[in-house]
Amino acid sequence: MPLKWSYTLLSGSLISTTFSITLNDGRFDDIGTASGGNTLVFNKNDYRTRFDISRSELATLIINKVSETEEAVYQCKLTTDLNQWSDRIRVIVTIPVKLINVSRDQTVLEGSNTALVCKATGKPTPNITLTRVLEDGSDGEVLPQGPTWNFPNINRATSGTYRCTAKNEYETDSQVFKVNVTYPAKIVNLVSEHEVAAQQSVSLDCQGEGNPQPSYTWTPCDPQQSVCHQSVLNFRGGDKSVHTFTCKVENYLGSDTKNTTLFIASDVINVTLIITSEECTDGEYNQLWEKLNKTMDDIFFAGKLGYESVQLKSIRCGCVIVDLALQFNSTVRESDVLSILRDAANNGKFGDLRVTAVTGKRDTGITSTIATTPTNSSDITVQACGDCACSYTVLGVVIGILVLIIIALVVYILWLHKKGERYSK
Questions:
Q1: Beta pairing partners, 148
Q2: Which of 43, 102, 389, 423 has minimal Cβ neighbours within 10 Å of its Cβ?
Q3: Sign of CA pseudo-dihedral 105, 106, 111, 116
Q4: 228-234-235 Cα angle (round to 5)
Q5: Does domain 186-264 have CATH number 2.40.30.170?
């Protein structure tokens, strides 16, 4: 890099031109001189390597390789036969901005201690910033001044892309890196209870979080009927009054499970009672129905669960199997209704009606509508030989056959015994 001084000699003759540099103590030290077309760089302080004096151009000092060492004040002094003149030039050396230590992409476990690094060199000294990068690529939040940013007990909110930037008044250098904070799988939302009408579908939503993204498993689950490994399980109410499902979320850092319970519920609950203390024949059930109707009013006394009325849907005679539709003024759970009826059966609240079984009945023909008590036999389905009666008939036949077999065996044994006595005589 040449340092040039321009001058005009108005009088006298030029004898020499001397070039100097300031030292640390402020004194000038001569670098070399030019005189009569000859140049000389003095052999000291590595001047001959660092500097040169132009022979073709007047008053020109050449800096061979600019470095921070060459930042100084330089002087050109002219000596004539009449006097001396001098002029000075200050050289300011700049160093390109360069990032020398920047954090790489990293994956860290939540709760660990982490440091992000952003270091650079340059002259003038660059200003260093670390910023969060937004989704559109622009700079967002600027972190407090570094060059090292410590994150004790780092959390998932720290995950993202960061930009390290070094900048001075002359240039800028930047680099981006990513921080991925991992944490165990966890269920953040799962409704604990659902109510659904019989034979209707419900979507069970298990909301989980985790990094890496967790997997989902529902149990129980029939893979032929449902997708068992997604966050949402679609289920149609089955034969049971209560269904309990377990959602499990899992990644390699941990797992979490929670239960949700599905209750069959409606304002009309269909139930079947098996009454073994009564008998009926076709068309002769009115007395039984009146007794049963009153018993239901007593069991659900004072509008328990919002009970309103009962509808007789069918009677199967032999022992008596009764299908009922219980009407309520709001949605109730089938399991609660069955619990009350079973408690009534176990504690004799049906009076002289001995009820041995109470079950829910899946009848898609009866929906949530006002149930009415039938007024004539044409409103009721009566089966002359129901399940219970047929079962007793079969049981009676089996017992009769066993008795005949036993009698035959006894007669045969007695005959053998008498025959043995004759031979002995």
A1: 117
A2: 423
A3: negative
A4: 100
A5: no
Domain boundaries, the chain: 2-91, 96-185, 186-264, 266-389, 395-425
Report the CATH fold assignment for 266-389: Alpha-Beta Plaits (3.30.70)
Task: Report the alpha-carbon distance of residue 123 to residue 130 in Å, rounded.
Answer: 20
Mean pLDDT of the chain: 84
Query: Following DSSP, what letter does each residue of 3-17 receive, concatenated?
Result: EE------SS-EEEE
Q: Tokens for 400?
A: 């009769």
> Which residue type occupies 195?
E
Q: 188-212, pLDDT tens digit by residue?
A: 999 999 998 888 889 999 999 999 9
Q: Which residues contact 370 (CB under 8 A, 6 or more apart)?
A: 327
The closest alpha carbon to 18, from 46, 53, 47, 69, belongs to: 53
pTM flag (> 0.70): no
Superfamily of domain 96-185: Immunoglobulins (2.60.40.10)
Mean pLDDT on 72-76:
96
CA dist 34 → 28, 79, 165, 416 (Å) = 17, 11, 47, 156
**Fold match, 96-185 / 266-389:** no
Q: How many Cβ atoms from other residues are within 10 Å of residue 367's Cβ?
A: 12
pLDDT tens digits, one per residue of 221-256: 888 878 899 999 998 877 889 999 999 999 999 999
Positive or negative: CA dihedral 222, 227, 232, 237: negative
Distance CA 57, CA 54 (A): 6
Could you tell me which CATH number the domain at 2-91 has? Answer: 2.60.40.10
